[in-house]
Amino acid sequence: MKITINNIKNSIGLTIVILMSNACNIPYLGVKNESNSLPSSYKISLNDSANSALLKWNDFFKDSNLMALIDTALMNNQELNIMMEEIKIARNDVKSKKGEYLPFVSPSVAVSNDKVGRYTSRGANDANTDIMPGRTFPEPLGDYMVALNASWEIDIWKKMRNARQAAIRRYLATNEGKNFMLTNLIAEITYTYYELMALDNQLEILKKNIEIQQNALEFVKLEKASAKVTELAVRKFEAEVLKNQSRQHYIQQAIIETENKINFLVGRFPQPVKRNSTAFIDLETDSIKYGIPAQLLQNRPDIRQAELMLVASKLDVLSAKASFYPSLRLKAGLGYQAFNPSFLLSTPESMIYSLAGDLVAPLINRNAIKAQYRTANSKQIQAVFNYQKTVLNAYIEVVNQLAKMDNLSKSYEYKAKQVNALTQSIDISIVLFKSARADYMEVLLTQRDALESKFELIETKLLQMNAKVNIYRALGGGWR
Predict the structure, then answer these.
(1) Closest to 96 in 3D by CA, of 196, 164, 179
(2) Domain map of the chain by residue range?
(3) Domain range 104-154+327-360, CATH class
(4) What is the pLDDT of residues 273-287, one digit of tens each?
């Protein structure tokens, strides 16, 4: 059969038609689109665009001791440093994906020595061939080569560019993940710092209460000496003092553990934590601006992270789909090759070059490609659900914390009145006891109730401060 240019063109054209018709037979998979609609307001608050989440954390928190702890944590926290390495890994992945669709060029140097049998086709041919007058091929035959080889897959269907864009989105998502970690880290340090202040206040209250009970115990002992009360009353008051002295050590242990939790978060070995606990009860709790729900999409790092991962998953689907289409790869080489080093750079006698192109597409066994395509599509659908879940969770977190702030504020007012009433009742009960108008059990119960109410007031204040930090975090503050 005579091969002509037209035969070659027809063969190439037929091959392309077969490859393209095969590529068009791609399984159809449904596409799920995300919805990021949010209610226009939080309902229980005024619709005001002013938003505390826009404040930097060092403008939001005013306590200099707390700010110093956060500053130290941003440098030393191990989890945060691990996340920073994750960001570097993601950035390297972007560089790797970029390199895949650029030409690959590699130099090569080869040296070999070859002895073939004389009575072989090649040996007989070499023996009867003169390379120059009076000289035949040397035996054994050397082979020396220096060359540059290049290969380049033409990214016709944007398979590799889409993979790179997906890697970029994942890199940006890891940055948002780092921001979300910052928000949570700052919030956790602040919770623990306020808990430490609350424990200091409870310890101080307990010490004052023990002092009051010891005075009452001494008075009861005098009353018993005067035969006005029995030994039972003395033992009851003594037991109450001992119980609270024991409780004092539990609080002191809790203070040590809370200090060390802060030390762990800031990445240092145990040491005292500076704080001014006397100001705890007067800390401000109602200075939050809530803004509108739509601002969550810009302010919450976890929402932005989920959104970037969603975009990356869509690009993964496009990249996986492109695997069904033909791929075109160009190959080229240029260099010198000779059997003797002295001839190596002879031009053009020792020059070698090549140029080739491959058009390749899967034809029969495409199960692996179909599976990868379906997997990418399922991950895209997962990313949609994850994005919508993150948005819904963010909105609910804000609504819950708004309601909590409101209810805790009302609860604190009642607790403060209760503490005031019970504190006054301690003095009244002692006066009545001295005048024999109340028994010792009434005095004891009044002191217990007063102590518990003071503890509960501190706990309510702690819940208020935690709710303030929670609403700041829920709105998307703390990472700027």
Answers:
(1) 164
(2) 29-101+157-325+363-474, 104-154+327-360
(3) mainly beta
(4) 999 999 999 998 877
